[in-house]
Amino acid sequence: MGHLKRKRSRIVVAAAALFATAGLTATVAAPASASPNPIPGINGVWGTPNLTGPAKAVNWITGLNSINNTAQYAVLGADLGITWDDGRGRILSVFGDSASFNPLSWVQNRTFFAWRSNVIFTSHTRDLSRGMFFDGAITDFPGHAKELLTPQIGAEITKIPTSAIAINGKQYMTWMDVTRWPGGNNWDTKFSAIAVSGDYGQNWAELPNTVRPSAGGNFNFQMQSLLRVGNTVYVYGTPAGRNGMVYLARVDANRITDLGAYSYWSKGKWVPKNPDVASPVNVKPTGELSVAWNAYLGKYVMLSTNPAIMMQTASSPEGPWSPPRTIIGSGEMVSAYAPYIHPWSSGSNLYFTVSQYQNYNVLLARLPLAQFK
Asked: Is residue 278 part of a domain?
């Protein structure tokens, strides 16, 4: 996620570079706001980053120079990479604003830019040591990753997924309605909500009864991360952007779409139905986050954008959470954000996806956990 105009500028410049590489010609004027630097994840200038801190890079999983060459699905740049088990032995990985180019669009609007709010790739990779390999995508026609939730023209800029989970053969995805990118680590939303798929991610329906307006206590649940413990789903919420605190709700998994069934953690106890009473469970500033139980450590692990990539642990979903520890510093991987734990991580390594804005693509990273024992 980031400023949409700057995202588009990077993809337009990248399209020109790709045409030149292929020996084709195209007259594309780079916007004044475009970076003068190459677009690494798209034209292959940057390799896998050399991370010197606790976490280690495995490889890029999106982009033209990634192990998956997602350009074959018309995705040259993307971010997020939220992964979950779909309940039948497959990983679904949903990405946020995804971009490519379309030479035919030059005739209509004088740009090669082609953009979708969200797409899904699929994977069966169990051994993540060499990377997460995609074996397909949710497509709307051959070779084209499908936009899952389409923004309403004039009313929304984009619809960004924030987490997902499989329950009783259905896929549930939380998402936020972005109406403005004022810049930096801030953006505005009108509401957050849940979408559901009954066919393992092929088609999605928005659920109006799950809408949380960006006001009152629901303001703190515009971005959500889901954790299932037994038959309870814990919902970690933050305001839109990367400057808020973390709040906590929980609900019976079978009632995830019933907002009236949620309880909220408030000063050490659970209070039903009222998001206004939720009190912070973690520090600010915190952005995109993910939480998972880790058997190796015997604790819950939280990864977050804060503003570098941070790790914390706790003995219960409610916390208290340990002080944040940097696992990818801003000097190691400039503009890194959105660490999402891979649900098939096991043993002494924790695998997670992390996005880079400059590159505008997604990396798989590995965190050796022995150092945290």
From this structure: yes
Residue 358's SS3 state is coil
39 within some domain: no
Residue 243 lies in a domain: yes
**Exposed/middle/buried for 310, CB within 10 Å: 0-12, 13-18, 19+?**
buried
Residue 200 CA to residue 206 CA, distance in Å, equals 15
CATH number of the domain at 209, please.
2.115.10.20
In a domain, 17, yes or no: no
Expressed as residue numbers, the domain containing 135 is: 48-372
How open is the CA angle 226-229-234, to the nearest 5 degrees?
35
Which residues fall within 8 angstroms of residue 109, CB to CB, at 6 or more apart? none
Contact predicate 49/333, CB 8 Å? yes
pTM value surpassing 0.85: yes
In this prediction, residue 225 carries a pLDDT of: 98
Distances (CA, A) of 267 to 193, 217, 233, 247, 271: 25, 15, 20, 11, 10
Structural domains counted in the chain: 1
Q: What is the pLDDT of residue 113?
A: 65
**SS3 call for 243:** coil
